[in-house]
Design goal:
The chain has one domain (14-507): Glycosidases (TIM Barrel, Alpha-Beta Barrel). It is 39% helix and 11% strand. The chain has 19 helices and twelve strands. The chain has helices at 35-46, 82-87, 109-128, 140-151, 156-168, 179-182, 186-195, 197-223, 241-245, 283-288, 292-304, 339-350, 366-374, 383-388, 416-422, 425-435, 442-452, 462-465, 495-507, and strands spanning 14-18, 51-53, 227-233, 260-264, 274-279, 307-311, 318-323, 333-336, 356-358, 379-382, 404-407, 457-461. The strands form two sheets. The protein has an eight-stranded parallel beta sheet. Helix 5 (156-168) packs across helix 8 (197-223). The chain is globular, with a radius of gyration of 24 Å.
Length: 510
């Protein structure tokens, strides 16, 4: 039958919140995948929202950055639910008798890591020794789940050996280990696995717990109509299981040291560029394998989330190659990456309409835009950027296309209130005139604009929803200390705020 109205089927539009699990409320010093996660999901559902974005979920190392994990596959032990471990009697209330007094709005990573790691080790000892005189007297169902996870998780053995190897070497990076573990033969690897069997068991156990907790949270969110946006950095850490177990996939010398490293060139913001220091991919060898490592990585991440944002998308088109040992990024040069071939292979393997968001910020040339658009990948529009430039620019909402994701700001930006208070008057003047506002409620002016835009997805950091100033900023790029620590409280998730979000989302068809 002809549609006499000529109306097209409505396009599903998303609206959601950017909040990493470490920011959730909870009694144990850091947000986790326990009750706080479920209360947050309930808040999203009550607010009429259908999207939740997280940062990378990996096992963080030095500096606590989610963008420098020990593994591209393993999850973050610090967000394992301690209440679940109580529920299955692997921990008891007396284990918390000497718990520190935590700051409710800030993660204190030093004491937190010592405290939580100690509890996870204690839970593991009880798990493998149920005859110990304690409340725990064995859990066959949990043990069966654990064994199934171990038998069906392809990346787990290498991860567990890598982490146990780090512990054996007092945390030293893998490229400083003895050759028998730094670049082991099959026989040497088997010897180390036997030697570190118990320690490896601990790391397998905590990854089982993370996977158990996360998949339960994801199922709950999906049942509430909420899809999750994950996030992965394009590059990996040098001291990671990825590089240790796949040295041929990276540009390394015979001793495991990079010959060249990642970064970005000098620009308006930095006269010396940015020196990130990540080892760069040997794309020639990746191509020979049919990009199997990348396919495995993206396929696995898409079992954990519904969409996947890839940080520094332009690195699939060209990447800035800096000689290892340089102190700045000045002497780097652009190198070609196999973008079209890579994504063609990815589509052929994982299916068309890849649920990938391209982080296409920074200095983007035409070839990056072509690569993004050839595969219909949505890019990112940051409203703060629209007004930092007083001229016409593609971050202004009237220039958006539907296939994009609109943010007020990201984890790397100041909060909207903090940004506005520090912005040049020319920027603030343009914003006030553009939105016809006195900016007295600047955060919600930006939120309404984000939701009102034609962008298929609109995502707002939790700090902006709460109208918080710069003290709540999650990350300041280039600053080593004090990042990734902000948390909100249960009192922040009020019915009045949920109602305001609901009204705004529905008003603009989200």
């Amino acid at each position: 039958m002809t549609n006499i109205t000529g109306a097209e089927a409505p396009i599903e539009k998303y609206a959601g919140v950017l909040a990493h699990p470490t920011s959730f409320p909870g009694p144990y010093g850091i947000g986790d995948l326990g009750d706080g996660a479920y209360r947050f999901i309930d808040f999203l559902a009550k607010s009429g929202l259908n999207l939740w974005q997280v940062l990378p979920l990996g096992h963080t190392g030095f500096g606590d950055s989610p963008y420098q994990p020990f593994s591209s596959f393993a999850g973050q032990p610090l967000i394992i639910s301690l209440d679940f471990l109580k529920k299955v009697h692997l921990l008891s209330d007396c284990d918390f008798a000497e718990m520190p007094q935590w700051d409710p709005v800030k993660v204190e990573y030093g004491p937190l890591i010592e405290f939580k790691t100690g509890l996870l080790h204690k839970a593991y000892e009880r798990f493998i020794n149920p005859e110990l005189p304690d409340d725990f007297n064995g859990n066959p169902e949990l043990m069966a789940e654990y064994e199934k996870f171990c038998n069906n998780t392809f990346w787990l053995e290498d991860y567990a050996l890598f982490m146990a190897g780090k512990d054996y070497h007092q945390g030293a990076p893998w490229y400083m280990w003895e050759d028998s573990l730094k670049k082991p033969t099959a026989k040497q690897k088997a010897t180390w696995i036997e030697k570190l069997k118990t320690e490896m068991g601990y790391y397998k156990f905590i990854q089982f717990l993370f996977h158990h907790d996360w998949m339960a949270v994801k199922e709950y969110a999906n049942e509430k109509g909420i899809k999750i946006v994950g996030d992965i950095p394009i590059f990996v850490a040098w001291d990671s299981v990825d590089v240790w177990s796949n040295p041929s996939l990276f540009k390394l010398d015979s001793k495991g040291y990079p010959t060249v490293v990642a970064g970005v060139p000098p620009d308006y913001f930095s006269a010396t560029g940015q020196l990130w220091g990540n080892p760069l991919y040997n794309w020639k060898n990746h191509t020979k394998t049919g990009y199997q490592w990348w396919i495995d990585r993206i396929r696995y991440q898409l079992t954990l989330t519904d969409f996947l944002r890839i940080d520094h998308f332009r690195g699939f088109d060209k990447y800035w190659e800096i000689p290892y040992g340089d102190e700045t990024a000045v002497n780097g040069k652009w190198q070609e990456a196999p973008g079209i071939n890579f994504f063609t292979t990815l589509e052929a393997t994982l299916g068309y309409n890849l649920p990938i968001i391209a982080e296409d910020l920074g200095e983007i040339d035409h070839s990056v835009v072509e690569l993004r658009d050839k595969f219909s990948l949505p890019g990112m529009k940051i409203l703060q950027f629209a007004f930092e430039n007083p001229e016409e620019n593609h971050f202004l909402p009237h220039n958006f296309t539907r296939n994009c994701v609109c943010y007020t700001g990201t984890h790397d930006n100041d909060t909207t209130l903090g940004w506005y208070n520090k912005a040049y008057e020319a920027s603030r003047d343009k914003l006030r005139r553009y939105f016809s506002t006195d900016a007295s409620d600047i955060c919600w002016v930006m939120i309404r604009s984000c939701f009102a835009s034609v962008a298929n997805m609109a995502i707002v950091p939790m700090q902006d929803i709460l109208c918080l100033d710069s003290w709540a900023r999650l990350n300041t790029p280039g600053v080593a200390d004090g990042n990734w620590s902000w948390r909100f409280t249960d009192a922040d998730l009020g019915d009045t705020l949920a109602a305001r979000l609901y009204e705004t989302a529905k008003l603009y068809g989200r």
